[in-house]
Amino acid sequence: MPRSPTSQRLTDAAIGLFNERGYDETTVDDIAARAGVSRSTFFRYYRSKEEVIFPDHDALLAKVEARLRASTAGTAIVAICDAVRIVLAHYVEDAEVSLRRYRLVGRVPALRHREIASVARYQRLFREYVGDWLAGTPDAPLRAELMASSVVAAHNQVLRGWLRAGGSYDPFEPLDHALQYVIRTFRHLENMEGPREGEDQVVVAAFPRSASPDDVMDAIRAHLGSRQ
Amino acid sequence: MPRSPTSQRLTDAAIGLFNERGYDETTVDDIAARAGVSRSTFFRYYRSKEEVIFPDHDALLAKVEARLRASTAGTAIVAICDAVRIVLAHYVEDAEVSLRRYRLVGRVPALRHREIASVARYQRLFREYVGDWLAGTPDAPLRAELMASSVVAAHNQVLRGWLRAGGSYDPFEPLDHALQYVIRTFRHLENMEGPREGEDQVVVAAFPRSASPDDVMDAIRAHLGSRQ
DNA sequence: GAATGCTGTGAGACTCAGTATCGTACGCTT
DNA sequence: AAGCGTACGATACTGAGTCTCACAGCATTC
What we know:
The structure is a homodimer of 228-residue chains. By secondary structure, the first copy, chain A, is mostly helical.
């Protein structure tokens, strides 16, 4: 959904002013004036001065939640690893804005707090999802917390690296690498019980050590494709 | 480090008023009046209205940092597991205040954000410590981030449980149990070499029958990551 | 016993974020 | 053209946080 032109002008004005003279030195009046609207209008579009820097965060969270709900992944950890990709994708999507925001957030404690708080919402979402999934198994809340925090941490680590490098490469490979770490780490925690239904389909495949991930993927894709 | 009587009266007045009529409904003037001092004096002791709820947080962080510096633990993960005990100990020390604050924080978003932000500082401290420790080893930043976030997550999970239960038991046993989990989990991470040369790489995956080929592919891709 | 300097406090003015209310201009339907 | 809803601007208000200044208490020093 394309944001309204007014809201777009407001964020542009805000980011511009924040970079020119700093966050604290910029008043909401300044932003509204540059955007050519009144102060009232600013607060109609954004509930606070901070929010102008983090628009569509709620929407993103909702998207992640939807993906999680629709997930048919085999394990909880894979489901949330999959979902966290959406978050990274969102940052990559308009890298320009992400980078400017990153530099800003690094300098302004209030914004940093805001960002941390929003990250905590993802973590909470993941925690609840995994908690439901594992319900009944031993130490479910603890394992849920650990898995959620690890996936979020992996994402953040990759994102930070990418932002620090000025968004100069494709961050999904490092993300996969990091999530791979997490999944392997938690596999022994997750599979304490066997598959939940007796009717699972099982894939067993053996490859030479020299096979690259792509080789593996191709072979499995070919196999799955034949069974549709 | 006994806090000054004025500062003590201020926090008492604040917590009392917050509980009686709510956080937003209490002004700094109200707090100052009940404590028998002026508004100016309030802001001399606390930089903000939020801070009155989280006194000595900086001191605690410093204590944790000192413990970390003095640590002689054999591995980074054990060192930060050890350090995080100080944090729990601080909450347990005056359980009364911790519990009242917990109930308050649960109801007031502004305070929740504040708390989350302060937790993030521990995590950052741990991350940097582990990062230094692991410097030079493969994926050091990633593993540092994961270890730090896991230890913090374990602590938070135990703390939340203890607070929800009204502080009715000794939380150090569950903490040890949780940290044991973390340590055991990350031992796996240390031994993460791939299959040995000459042996096949084997993929075994189980999926619900409802899983589409794409689901299977996604899951396997996630497991394989970008490992070459 | 004054003069001096330091420290903690109160008073008041000021800026700005955020909320609430009201009037009004514009576009749309019938 | 009349009616109607929506978006906007204007204005006033509350309260957090900052800053400056004045003053009282209390020591030291000559």
